[in-house]
Specification:
heterodimer; A: 113 residues; mainly beta; 5-stranded antiparallel β-sheet; B: 114 residues; 7-stranded mixed β-sheet; 4-stranded antiparallel β-sheet; 11 strands; globular
Chain lengths: 113, 114
């Protein structure tokens, strides 16, 4: 059974703080690793799809790294803003066709102004 | 360009009843997946449809069934509803098969079974 773990479960930071979350996934049969942001009352939205060991991707103040050999990915948010408040989900495709995404439980970030 | 749409937004049903949820994929997408998100959990894969066929099913009973139409829209049917079926049901579409394609999600249908 494929298992994806995320930590911490929740996080509360002040505006301007930088923060990071962890996603752990099986290191064998790796195809890709997805990060999604899910704001309250909205649809989950893809942030990154990472495929290569050592990948680093960036979108504005958010960046992610990938280590497929040890089975983890980090998501970093620099200078958190209230609009970054959301649940951040990572997901691991169960096969090369990406048939099913196996999701972690997510990290819920709350940013206070 | 409309993204993934789902209907209805909310639904309240009684145990034992049947329910149908609907999903229209993003324009140009031919692959539709359904997920169930229970409280405190990440989304759980139910099944995926491609070319009107169910490609793969997650660990869900046969009470959960689906269909994909020629226009790629999809339905999720749940029979003999149980209290435990209360959840947010998400539909996702992708441009093609492949682990590296991001999935686009709809806003979900909140099902409450009483």
């Amino acid at each position: 059974i494929l298992n994806v773990e995320q930590s911490p479960q929740s996080l509360h930071v002040q505006e301007g703080d930088s923060t990071n979350f962890t996603c752990s996934f099986p290191s064998s049969n790796f195809y890709a690793l997805h990060w999604y942001r899910w704001e309250t009352a909205k649809s989950p939205e893809a942030l990154f799809v990472m495929t290569l060991n050592g990948d680093e991707k960036k979108k504005g103040r958010i960046s992610a790294t990938l280590n497929t050999k040890e089975g983890y990915s980090y998501l970093y948010i620099k200078g958190s803003q209230p609009e970054d408040s959301a649940t951040y989900l990572c997901a691991f495709p169960n096969d090369q066709a990406g048939t099913a995404l196996i999701f972690g439980k997510g990290t819920t970030l709350s940013v206070s102004s | 360009d409309a993204g993934v749409t789902q209907s209805p937004t909310h639904l309240i049903k009684t145990r034992g009843q049947q329910v149908t949820l609907r999903c229209s994929p993003k324009s140009g997408h031919d692959t539709v997946s359904w997920y169930q998100q229970a409280l405190g959990q990440g989304p759980q894969f139910i099944f995926q449809y491609y070319e009107e066929e169910e490609r793969q099913r997650g660990n869900f009973p046969d009470r959960f069934s689906g269909h994909q139409f020629p226009n790629y829209s999809s339905e999720l049917n749940v029979n003999a509803l149980l209290l435990g079926d209360s959840a947010l049901y998400l539909c996702a579409s992708s441009l093609a098969l492949g682990a590296w394609y991001e999935q686009y999600f709809g806003p979900g249908t909140r099902l409450t079974v009483t």
